[in-house]
Amino acid sequence: MASELLSRAEEVVVQPPLSQAVGYVVVVVIGLVIAFAMVLVTRLLKHTVGEDNKKTEMFMTANRSVNTGLTASAVVSSWLWSTAMLGSTLVGYVNGVSGPFWFAAGCSPMIVFFAVLGISCKRKIPEAHTLLEIVRIRYGTTAHIVYMFLCLVNNLFAVANMLLGASAAITAMTGMHIIAATFLLPVGVALYTFVGGIKATFLTDYMHTFTILIILCYFSVKAFTLEEVGSLGNLFELVKAAGARHPVPENEQGSYLTMTSKGGILFGILHICANFGLVIMDTSFFIKAFSASPQAVVPGYVVGGIAYFAIPWAMGTLASSVVLGLEHNPIFPTYPRRMTSTEVSNGLVLPYFAMTIAGKGGAAGILLITFMAVTSTLSAQVIAVSSIISFDIYRTYFKRSASDEDVIRWSHYGVIFFALFASAFSTMLHYVGVDLGWTLYMLGVLTCPGIFPTAFTILWRRQSKAAAIIAPLLGMITGIASWLGSAYALYGAVTIATTGQTVPCVWGTVASAFSPLVYSPIITLFKPENFDWADFRKERLAFEVSDTSSIISHRNSSVVRVNSELETQSPDEQVLLRRWGRIAAVWALATFLGHWVLWPLPMYASKYIFGKGFFAAWLVIAIIWLWGTLFIVGFYPLIDGRQQIWAVWQAIRDGRKKRGEAGAASTRSASGEQTPESVEEKQGKTG
Known about the structure:
This protein is an all-alpha fold. It has helices spanning 2-11, 20-49, 56-61, 68-79, 82-95, 98-105, 108-124, 131-139, 141-174, 178-222, 232-245, 262-280, 283-291, 297-308, 310-326, 341-345, 349-398, 404-431, 436-447, 451-459, 465-491, 496-499, 502-526, 571-598, 600-606, 612-634, 636-640, 642-670, 676-686; strands at 552-555, 558-561. The protein is built from 29 helices and two strands.
């Protein structure tokens, strides 16, 4: 049967619906247009509200003044990888309705949990720019270098995962060479990040995420206008018939319409562990937390995390259901064959869904959202790595007295270097046979070892220096050994194919994540510390902050300067931050229990197969949640940032008025008329 599918796959080649020219226009031209637009916005903010990106605090942390709405939007954007849409539809196609749900449940809990770490950092070390500064101050140089390695590995594989999926999708849509797409995608990102820094990243994140959600919401409606789909009831029948034709061996009764899926729950375990590593070891999340005002960290991450849940759940379920249901229909791009394993692993379920329901327009939509998703998340990774190069390498080991100009210059070097290196690394992975599916499953093996030691660094004063250094390294060794060992034991060889299988990746990821939870306390028992959190404040980390860029925010009818966190925090402020910490902890626990335990696990145990009404309700709730996310990401930042928008508008209007008055005065002067100023001068001379 497999050989028959392969031979039929060779007979039916899916032609790209769009031309290569369209691919280059989107990737290069639109990328540069967005970049130059962000450059202009950056200059406008400098001249109107004094946000000077030549100052390090503005370039790296936006003067720690970003409001809740923009923080929530940036949080959603940070996780709105091309992988989130391509990967959720991939696991939906393979496992049925359980796949997209577990994908979403593997993202939201740790995003909300990060609010706990973010507000704790705000309270204990408010001047920090990166996670690695915290590690260095507490544990010294050796630990600093170890965690630098862990963070860079995390960033590198995260970007490779994004680029591999996005490049494959763009190539499928346009026929553009996959290597050209891999190298050209970071160009616009590098340009606007080079000039605008973190604030440009926030603003571009907002614009991209809003656009992506508009297109996804359009797809959620467009799918049901297709005659072959028609209604939720008809879609249910199509998916039910697909399960009868191609039953899933490890699902209850082989059905796609059940949460009782061994493949689904194994992916859920793997995904939540891997994503905890991706969040906690990604310095861009810390930078965005440091950039948010103290009052915005917790609500921004909580709102963003819960809103994000709908994107992989709704689109993954809808797109994979349509593809499974219409795969045998002549309107499907691969007809008369099914999708090959290579096409599925390259993340082409979503592109084929869009082509099926909307033809070339759908392909153009997927091309645009893939481009925007990958560039948006790339910008966060680029700024993260540039911060490591400028703060944690250059400022720490080469020039402790580095000025604003020095640090900004090295940040620029970091942006260019990482954009090129990540593209080259992704190209190497492509040529050795690695694709989106492989990186999606094995990512946690390398990203998870630092989860608990890093959290303990911020939350547990007893962890020793030796534990902080040794535990993550032992965890990585344990994870890699479990991953490769289980691949060999189960499949008899260690190859790209065997190491990309679900079970070895689950064993490796779980071992990598949880073994440091054992190693760290055991090592700490030999020589526990009692770290004084006040020691974090002994080292001056922040550069001079310009008062002109302070934004005034109103909260509880009182005026608070958002830059005040860089000054000595009063006892009342400490109490407020502790209260936010408790709120964050409650929300983190509630999100984990709700999204990962109380909702899905009883459904897994019940062996329930969805009926028509239940499937309709499942999908309707997901789509309503998706539209709610659109309004939160698209309009909440505008409402929350209305004061700064108004301030920018007033500054523009005042500037035009002054230029108009100056122009009128010069015109009257040229025509010989007496201007008010000339009259005053004459009266002064006469007096």
